[in-house]
Amino acid sequence: MSLKSKVTGLILAGGRGTRMGRVDKGLQPFRGTTLVEHVMRRLAPQAATIVINANRNLPQYQAVAGEAPVLPDYLDGFEGPLAGLQIGLQYCPTELLLTAPCDSPFLPADLAERLHAAMQAQDADVALAVTMESEEGGEPRRQLHPVFALLKASLLPQLDAYLATGARRMESWYKSLRVAEVMFDDADAFRNINTLAELQQHERAPAPAPAAPAGEPAADAMPVAEAQRIICERMTPVAATETLPLRAALDRVLAEDIVSPINVPAYDNSAMDGYALRGADLPAAGAPDATFKVIGIAYAGRPCTQTPQAGECVRIMTGAAIPPGCDSVLQQELAAHIGADTVTIAHGAIRPGANRRFAGEDLKAGGIALAKGKILRPADLGLVASLGIGEVAVQRKLRVAFFSTGDELRSLGDSLDEGCVYDSNRYTLFGMLTRLGCEIIDMGIVRDDPAALEAALREASAQADAIITSGGVSEGAADYTRDILARIGDVAFWKLAMRPGRPLAFGQIRTEAGSAWLFGLPGNPVAVMVSFYLFARPALLRMMGAQSTLPMMQARCTEAIRKRPGRTEYQRGIISAGAGGEPQVRLTGAQGSGILRSMTEANCIVVLREAQASIAAGEMVDVLLFDGLV
Ligand code: AMP
Ligand code: MG
User: Fold this and answer.
1) Which domain holds residue 256?
2) pTM for this prediction
């Protein structure tokens, strides 16, 4: 039996993690993923199953944990590692439990193996890692790592008994057990990341991460879907709502379900101008035509109160209530003969039940007519009006501040000096944010200067829910940006496995004046738009409390496209109806990330998936549509 099959990995993420601000340590973005996922990857080859102990942000942990359970402590008000250990031992389906903190992305690959060997050799209950730490100027010192431990699952009753005495310290519990200490040479492997400064520093250091298997993106480039997931998981809807008259609510996000107070339609009515009758009176097959006597007339809004008897009918207009006893309507153009006060109908002209609209067939009283989170479109306004409702509760508008960075940028109206470009990103961002229904705060151009950038970010965080910047996040350019952002927020710099739009900064700015989510988009005009659509848009929609996905479809590509696997590419295309009406797509010429024309000519984006290589003309490709009808 392999060692792995006997080991359960316990990731300790239960602490308060206050040194990294309000964001949970394990969920910190780190080298393309989160800290806890690094720990999971490191433990996966060493354990049959993994469990995470966390006390806050459980859904976020669950989202990254996949199959692994995420369990909170049950020891009230403590949140120390022993409480995590208790829940871990209780869950542990195997003989042994291997523990590691959620912020130790470099833990040794042979941790379980070496701890186990010592445990067996010394007949111990617990094996702990030890390293030699050399402090500047001082003697090297033995450093015990009680949270990197291998324990027998059978220790649970002893731990319960120890905790029952009110004691809480891990080290002193271990003193009551037979402990094997195992010296590891690589002290760095046990390095846990405690502060944002450390996180940023390691983010930049060369990665000791395991090599990615062939076909996957380089270890340091994050897949688009993963970045989207990490971003979206952090977002929560803003709480404030407002009540607006129906028309003012167009394009706003519904804050409450709209429950229908009535049936729509409120009564059975006619879908046609014609004659209402009893279906049972229609002539059978082979029977002669039947003539009905017209006994009255029903208009929309003016019902006919008479009840037709056998052989009688009522002249009826579209939308008029179906008279009592009737269940079918013959549209007038299908009558065999219309007399002064009669109508004659042949067999088969209509089926019984024809042209009757049922009460409540559009909306039932008490049913949810529109669900919270819906972005109200024209049809929705109509639907709400059909219920007689004139005001709706919507989410307050999201406030989004944005600015462009770059010494080379000039505003419209300025002269274009040598080597300069007009700032176009603020216009595309204006358009995209306005379309999304945000309240925008245009902060202009910010020079490539640390003090100016810091001032702009501080000001933006005081006013906005989110901040969108363009430029200055590519490698090299971003060095001073990182330092500022480490000081006034938790922001990670990602390299994404995509084109265009490889660099992205994402995190939270927190100042005395307020906090805001930051999306640091790249500078190139097409990259700005693509990264906005892919990352900022879904995140902002979530903050707005909205449910929305981009419509994706498939089309036949009329030309060959060169592409290498390992990154997702977003090419600008024109989709149209091809032979037989099948959608086909071609590219809009040169696809450089600075060529905005490729975007203005396009009506869609062709998405070439990460694993995809070059495609031949005639292959099907995924396409994201720009505009919908409504
Ligand atoms: P950066 O990401 O700052 O290195 O910028 C990358 C490229 O995008 C450079 O060619 C910039 O001149 C260009 N760029 C950056 N910001 C803007 C902007 N607001 N409008 C137009 N081009 C920009
Ligand atoms: Mg720049």
Assistant:
1) 241-261+368-395
2) 0.66
